[in-house]
Every structure is written in C-alpha cells, then in structure tokens.
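Blinded run. Sample ID left blank on purpose so nobody reads anything into the name before looking at the predicted structure. Input follows.
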Amino acid sequence: MNETQQKPPYAMIAILFVGAFIAFLNNTLLNVALPTIMVEFDVKASVVQWLTTGYMLINGILIPASAYFVTKFSNRKLFITAMTLFSLGTFLAAIAPEFWVLILARMIQAAGSAVMMPLLMNVMLTAFPIERRGTAMGLFGLVMIMAPAIGPTLSGFIIEHYTWRVLFELILPLAVIVLIFAIFKLKNITPNKDMKLDILSLGLSSIGFGGLLYGFSSAGDKGWDAPIVYSTIAIGVIALVIFVLRQLKLDEPLLNLRIYKYPMFALSSVISVVVSAAMFSGMILTPLYVQTIRGISPLDSGLLMLPGALAMGLMSPVTGKLFDKYGARSLAVIGLIITTIATYMMSNLAADSDYYYIMAVYTIRMLGMSMVMMPIMTNGLNQLPMKMNPHGTAVNNTLQQVSGAIGSAIFITIMNARMESKGASLFEEAAKAGNVPTATDALAQFKMQLGAQAMLEGINFTFFIATLVTVVALVLSLFVKRVDISKK
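Blinded prediction complete.
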C-alpha cells in the first residue's frame, strides 16, 4: 500500500466533493424552471424539454468514455478541464439571449459534469485502503444524494421569488472558486498510462447509450408507438450489441466489460439497476400524486420529498461505516425489507391521504434505499483489481443513467395503461347505472372526477409493481458475499 493510501489527501478530496456537488445540484435545479423558460423564449414543451434531454444525452455519451479519460489523463488535468467547461457553460446559461444559446450552454455544462462523478469515485478508490472504502464511499453518497434532494426545493423557491437566471448566477461563483482552488491545490494520485482512443468504440457507445436514453426518456411523453421512440431504441440496441462484441475483442477496450467475470461486481450491477429503476418510480409518481390528485403546489411537493432525500443523504456516511464493519449483505437485506414495505404502503394511497403520512412513508422508503445503493456498489468495486476501477465506475454510472431512464419510461407506461383501462371501466359503470350527466359543464366536471380516480388507481397499481421490483432486488441481495480483502 502506498503513502497516498495510508493518509488520504482530504483537502484535495474536499475540492473534488464540492465540484461534484455543484454539478449534481445544477442537474436538478432546472426541472422546476422549465415552464417559466418556455414562456420567456416562447417555445413548446417538447422543445424546452431539450434542456434536460440534451444534458442527459451528453452525460450518456461521455460517461462510458470516462474510463479512457481517467486512465489516460491525470486527475488534476481532468478535473480542471471539466470544471472550466462547467463554469463556461454556467456563465453562458446565465446570460443566454436566445433559446439555442441556453441549450448549447447546458450541453457544455454536461460535458464538464459527466466526468466529475467517475473521477471522484476513482480518486476515492485510489486514496482509501479497501477496509475504509465504505466510509469514504458513504461520504460520496452524501454528495450524490444531497444535491438532487436540495435541487427541486431550492429551485421552486427561486422561481417563485426571482428569475430563472438566478439558478445559474448562484452556481457560477461557486464553480469559479472551486476551479481556482483546483488550480492551486490539486495533486495527481490516480495511476495513468498512455492509451489510444478507439474512435469506433466511442461512436458506437455514443449511438448506443444516446439512443437508449433518448428513446426511453421520450416514451413517457410521445408514446411507445411513436417512430422516433422505437427507432432510436432499436438503433441504440444494435449499436450496443456491436459495441459489446468489439470491447471483448480489443486489447485496450474503451470500456473493459471483462469486469463482469468478477461475480460480486456482476451481482452488484444487477441489484443497482433494479433498485435505481424502483427509486426513480417513487421520484416521479410521488410528485404526480401530490400535485395532480391532491392539488398541492410544486414548492410544497418539493418540501414533502425533502426529508426523504435528506434522510437518504445523511444516512449515507453512517451506512458507509456499517459497511466497513458488517459488509453489504446484511445492510442490503434490511434496507430492501424497509423499502419493500414502504413501497407497498405507497400502493395504497387514497384521494385524501394525509400530507405528513405521505411524507413519513416516502422518507422511510428513501431511508431503506440509502442502506442499499452505496454498500452494494462498493462491495462490487472492491472485487476489481485497481487498474479496472475506472471501468467499474464508468459501467456503474452509465447503468444508473440508463436504468433510471428505462425505469421511468416503463413505470409511466404502466401507470398510463392502468389509468386508461380504469377510466374506461368507471365511465362504463356510470353509463349503465344512468349516472352520466348530459349537460356540457356537468359532463366535463364528471369526466375530471373520473380522471382523478383513474389516475389514483394507475399510481397505486404502479407502486404495487415497484414493490414486486424491490422484492426481486431483495432476493438477489441474499446472494451477496463480502469480498475477501486478504486475496487482493
């Protein structure tokens, strides 16, 4: 073990943490502001959505390539470049005179932030010995979870009282301060080696992951039968199959998929995908229920979800310490039992469920999830040799993005299908009983009431499906074994 591992460079890690926190925070700030931006630039909902879709696509393209960047370039050079791009994008967004400038700014921001998470994870894996990685990754989880937790609530407050540009004006000075500190304080600690970039692999991964992310993200809005949806998914799948076959043949692949020879890493990947999909379902369905069925404001909706996200973030360092002591399996099993029970409780919501009851159940659900994600991921990474860490983190981060998009699309589809069938059956029952009003206004009001009932049924049913998904993750977690440190 080298000197760096014996005494981790805490000042340097703090700089990386703050940089990653700002990047994650920025990612979630804009969602609440989209309606306001739509009005200011006079663009349609499908067009304004590109501010988040474009950001996500650049992430999906660059994260798989992050293994190459982390291996080829020093962590200092990489972080300074990423932070410079992010700061430039933030500045452009704050002053954007036209909508296309704002989209360009978001994509420049994404190019910077895409490398932050894999880079920080690799620095943590290099800086900390394997027996202390749980604590370190727990702190990393705090950053990863707290930023998206604060984002929607902070954004809701700013949009209510100021202009959307303040979202970027708030981030910019912080990004510049982190960049200045990085220039003077960052050192190189990750091992590097000279390697060639396989352009064909980069192209295939961009088309593959980009196609999947775009296709599944658009499915909830455009429908599965839209040509743009099924064609981009099909192109994405074909490109990914060719990409995988190529990686297995290359001596120096862009993304080394031989990491799946390590059983605990392979199992951790599968569990992470399943849990990510279930987590995103809650993040989408809860505000939908709160705002549409209950008529609660977006700001109050954000506040309802805040304790859950804060609990998840604050539990992360605690979970890390427990992981170092007891391993991943016991934590994951307990966490998934809690998550499964809370998700089932969310599948029995009523039209008048209490605000604080929903907050409590959602918080318990997130608390359960906080015991699963980081321990499972860290246990898998612990089995990999040091030289494969960049590939392990790149695969994990890519899969999290893709499973989030796929999970969201599938759960929204399930909800819509259930909603339509329930709405049709309710209307049919009312028609048979002769309870359908004939006056235009009364009929419109009646249809709205039926629509709300049908949506509630759709949300509850989808939460029930999410419960079954968490049960699958629970069964898989029983097979997790602690990695033997002595064999590394």
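Unblinding after everyone has recorded impressions. Residues 198-253 form one domain.
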